[in-house]
Amino acid sequence: MEIKVIAGDITEIEADAIVLSFFEGMERLEGDLADIDRMLNGNISPLVRRGEIKGKLNEITIVHSLGWLPAERVVIVGLGKQQELTTGKVRDAVAETCRTLQKKGVRSIATIPQGAGMGGITLESSAQMLTEGALLGVYSFRKYITKKEEEPGEMKQLTIVGADKDSLSALMAGCQKGKVLAEATNLARDMTNEPANYMTPSHMAEMATKLAQTYGLELTILEREQMQELGMGALLGVAQGSQQPPKFIVLRYWGRGNREIDIVFVGKGITFDSGGISLKPSEKMEEMKRDMAGGAAVMAAISAIAQLKPQINVMAITPTTENLPSGSAMKPGDLLKAMSGKTIEVISTDAEGRLILADALSYARKHNPKFIIDLATLTGSCRLTFGDVYSGGFTNNQEFLNKVIAAGAEAGELVWQLPLHELYREQNKSDVADIKNVGGKYAGAITAAQFLAEFVGNTPWVHLDIAGTDLSEKDRGHWVKGATGVAVRTLVNLVLSLAKQ
Ligand code: BES
Ligand code: ZN
Ligand code: ZN
C-alpha cells in the first residue's frame, strides 16, 4: 500500500472512500462532516438523529455519495468518547476501517489526521497511527494460496490530507516512522507465519544476511563448531536431535561513535517445537512453528532501528534450532553444561526455550551491555494466565521494566509484571546439577523466568514471555488472525527512548 501526505480539502479528494470520524455523545455533525452532509443534501445528519451513527468505538458507517462528491463513499468511523481518545484507539479504528473497506473492494482511501490536537495527540503521532493502522490492519499471509480469483484484492492507497502546507512536515515524519514500524512488524509476522519446513534455522540465517545487507547491519553467524568452542552446551543439547544445523545469529547496529553495546535483544528462535523426546500432544502441534516469534521480532526490530538511526548501539541475538525427537536427541535426565559453566538437569526436553536462551544470555553478557531484554514464546503457563492480551514481564531491575512497559503502551502492546522470588528459585534446584529446567507444575511462567535470571547476573534485564500474544485467534484492531509481530514496536520505542536520554 502506498501512503501519501498532501495538503488540501478532504471534501475535494477523489478516492474510493474518504474516512471521517465521529465521537460518542456528539449531537451534531461538525467540521468536514458538516460540510459533507450539506454536499450530500443533508443525508448524514438524520443517521445521527436516529442513532444509526452513535460514534461508538470502531463503529463503521458507509454512505455512498452517488455523484455528489468526488469520492465514491463517505465512511464515518466512531472513535468513542472524545475525552477518552488515545493514539492506540486511532491505530485500531483505522485498522478495522481499512480491513472492512478492503473486503468491499475499496482500493483507495483518504482521511484527515484523526485525533490530532485532542488529548495530547500531535499531528505527527496521528499520521503515525494512521499509517500503522492501515498497514497492520490489512496484512495477510496468503502467499501459498494458489487460487487467487476469489480474493478481494488489496487496498492500494491511503492519502493523509493535512489542512495546510504547514502541517506537511509533521505528517510526513509521522507517516515515515509509522511505515518503518509497521513494515518491521509485518516482517516478523511473515517470518512467524511461514511453515517450519521453510523457516528453518538456516533460512533464518539467510534472512538475517539479507537484512544485514539491506540495512547496513553487522552480522555474525555462529555455526555448530563455534558454539562448541564457546561451550554452548545447553543450546547444543536442544539442537542435537535435529537434522537441521543450528545457527546463532548476531546482528549489530552501531549508531554512535564507540563500540560499547548499550542494549542486547535476545529472541527465542525454535523454528519448530515438537517437545523433543518429551513429545507434545499432536493436537495443535502445528502451531509450534511459531516458536521463533521472539527471534523474528528481534531481527525485525533491529532492522527498523537501522532505518530510524538513533544514536545508540544495539545487538540482536537469535539462537535458532529445531526441537525434535530422534536417536540423537537429548533425553529427560541428561545433564548439560551451559556456556556460563552451570550444569543443567534436563527434566523435560520440552522446556527447551530456557536452554537456548541461557547460552544466548551468557553470550550477551560477554559484551557488557547496559541492558538486556529477551523475548520468548516461553511457557504455556503464561498463555493460560494472560491469553492473547498481555505479555508477561519479568525483571531484576524495576526501572528498566517500567521503561519497557511504557514503550509497549506507546506501541499498543500490553505488558503485565509477574514476580521473581527466592522461593521460586528454590523450585528450580536439582539434586544432581546446579539447576534443573523445570520448576514443577505450578507457577510455570515464573519458574521459567527465574531460570533465565540465573544467566544474566546483575545486568539490568527484562524477560517478556510472549507465548500468548505472539498469535491472535481473530482479527482485532491492528491485529489480524495469525502471527501478531508482537514486541517489535515495543523494542523500537524502547531504544528510541533510551537513545534520547
Ligand atoms: N514453546 C513452548 C511454550 C508455548 C506453549 C508457546 C504454547 C506458545 C504456546 C515451550 O517450549 C514449552 O513447551 N514449554 C513447556 C514447559 C514445561 C515443559 C515446563 C510448557 O509451557 O508446557
Ligand atoms: Zn517446548
Ligand atoms: Zn518452545
**Going by CATH, what is the homologous superfamily of the largest domain?**
Zn peptidases
Helical fraction equals 25-40%
Which second-level CATH architecture of the largest domain applies?
A: 3-Layer(aba) Sandwich
Listed once per kind, the bound small molecules are:
ligand BES, zinc ion
Tell me, rounded to a whole number, the average pLDDT. 97
Q: CATH top level of the largest domain?
A: Alpha Beta
Question: How does this structure look, described?
Answer:
By secondary structure, the chain is of the alpha/beta class. The chain has two domains: 2-182, Leucine Aminopeptidase, subunit E, domain 1 (3-Layer(aba) Sandwich), CATH 3.40.220.10; 194-499, Aminopeptidase (3-Layer(aba) Sandwich). The protein contains 15 helices and 20 strands. The protein has helices at 31-39, 45-49, 87-103, 123-137, 168-193, 201-215, 224-230, 233-239, 293-308, 353-366, 380-386, 398-411, 422-427, 444-453, 488-500, and strands at 2-7, 17-24, 60-64, 73-81, 108-111, 157-162, 218-222, 247-254, 263-267, 269-273, 313-323, 335-337, 343-345, 371-376, 390-395, 414-417, 435-436, 461-465, 471-472, 482-483. Strands 7, 8, 9, 10, 11, 14, 15, 16 and 18 form a nine-stranded mixed β-sheet that branches. A six-stranded mixed β-sheet has the order 1-6-5-2-4-3, with helices on both faces. β5 (108-111), α4 (123-137) and β6 form a beta-alpha-beta unit. α5 (168-193) packs antiparallel against α9, α6 packs parallel to α9 (293-308) and α8 packs antiparallel against α10 (353-366). The two termini are 35 Å apart. 56% of the residues are buried. The mean pLDDT is 97. The structure holds ligand BES and zinc ion (2 copies).
